């Protein structure tokens, strides 16, 4: 069933669990994620990000994601993650994505607000939802996730939500995109403060590599959506290496890859508490 973020996140926030966003670049990852959600009877968010498009052409993969969502037995949001340009966000909406994340967080704060508000207005006319970001979620490769000056403040979150009308808000509390070089230190107190002052569902980016305890704490104190990609890539890489070491034929390696990615998604669904929430 194809739905938008409101359909899955409002319930998640009310019942204190999180829904996973699993970015996919091909139909192997897509099959793994959807089948995991169906087996766990969990809502799920499937997406792809603008930075991933060289590895998964949007007009090519979008019809597959949307078709899989429509025929799924569980609610599936088709989400365009980290949209960096107005043109690409509009392309995703026209292709049928039910949710857009516009990320202007790296630029001027006032421009981020103005651009996000414009995209919210357009996306809502499509019946789609919008996620925005305030603060800076770092890059694990550079370690800038530890720069606390870039973390989201409660005041910034309130102002951003009021001026843009976003349906979900990604907050910076110490996570980073990519594989961590050292254990991140999450600012849970900051998350508590933000959640106490806003009703908009909050999103955690840079989830791959966090400990189970980190996930439980962030969800307990207000996160309703968690983004995962790197962990899926690692599961796929390990599966292909295993298949090659055993000299398996191509299709057997492909099936092993799907199986291992599916197992990674199931593990996250259980951890996030969304099992049997469809």
Describe the overall structure.
The chain is α/β, with parallel strands linked by helices and 278 residues long. 49% of the residues lie in helices and 17% in strands. It has helices spanning 5-15, 27-40, 58-71, 86-95, 109-125, 154-164, 188-197, 212-220, 230-245, 250-272, and strands at 2-3, 19-23, 44-49, 76-83, 99-102, 129-134, 138-139, 168-171, 176-177, 202-204, 223-228. An 8-stranded parallel beta barrel has the order 2-3-4-5-6-8-10-11, surrounded by 9 helices. A two-stranded parallel ribbon has the order 7-9. Helix 5 (109-125) links the parallel strand 5 (99-102) and strand 6. The longest helix has 23 residues, at 250-272. 49% of the residues are buried.
User: What gyration radius follows from the Cα positions, in whole Å?
Assistant: 18 Å
Q: Outline, from the CA principal axes?
A: globular
What structural category do the secondary elements indicate? alpha/beta
- Uncertain runs: 138-148, 177-181
Spatial arrangement of strands, main beta sheet: 2-3-4-5-6-8-10-11
Keywords:
two-stranded parallel ribbon, globular, 278 residues, eight-stranded parallel barrel, 49% helix, alpha/beta, 11 strands
Q: In a few lines, what is going on in this structure?
A:
By secondary structure, the chain is α/β, with parallel strands linked by helices. It contains ten helices and eleven strands. The chain has helices at residues 5-15, 27-40, 58-71, 86-95, 109-125, 154-164, 188-197, 212-220, 230-245, 250-272; strands spanning 2-3, 19-23, 44-49, 76-83, 99-102, 129-134, 138-139, 168-171, 176-177, 202-204, 223-228.
């Amino acid at each position: 069933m194809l739905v938008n973020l409101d359909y899955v996140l409002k319930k998640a926030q009310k019942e204190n669990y999180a829904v996973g966003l699993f970015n996919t670049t091909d139909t192997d990852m897509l099959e793994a994620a959807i089948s995991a959600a169906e087996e766990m009877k969990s809502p799920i968010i499937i997406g792809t990000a603008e930075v991933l498009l060289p590895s998964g052409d949007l007009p090519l993969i979008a019809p597959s994601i949307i078709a899989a969502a429509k025929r799924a037995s569980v609610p599936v949001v088709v989400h365009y993650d980290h949209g960096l340009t107005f043109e690409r966000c509009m392309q995703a909406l026209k292709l049928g994505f039910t949710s857009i994340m516009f990320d202007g967080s790296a630029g001027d704060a006032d421009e981020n607000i103005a651009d996000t508000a414009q995209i919210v207005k357009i996306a809502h006319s499509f019946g789609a939802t919008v996620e925005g970001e305030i603060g800076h979620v770092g890059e694990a490769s550079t370690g800038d996730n530890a720069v606390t000056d870039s973390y989201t403040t409660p005041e910034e979150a309130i102002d951003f939500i009021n001026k843009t009308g976003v349906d979900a808000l990604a907050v910076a509390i110490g996570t980073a995109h990519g594989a961590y070089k050292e254990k991140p230190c999450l600012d849970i107190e900051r998350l508590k403060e933000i959640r106490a002052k806003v009703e908009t569902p909050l999103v955690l980016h840079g989830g791959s590599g966090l400990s189970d305890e980190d996930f439980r704490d962030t969800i307990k104190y207000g996160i309703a959506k968690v983004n995962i990609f790197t962990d899926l890539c690692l599961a796929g890489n390990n599966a292909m290496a295993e298949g090659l070491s055993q000299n398996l034929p191509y299709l057997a390696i492909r099936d092993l890859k799907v199986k291992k990615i599916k197992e990674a998604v199931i593990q996250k669904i259980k951890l996030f508490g969304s099992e049997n929430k469809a």
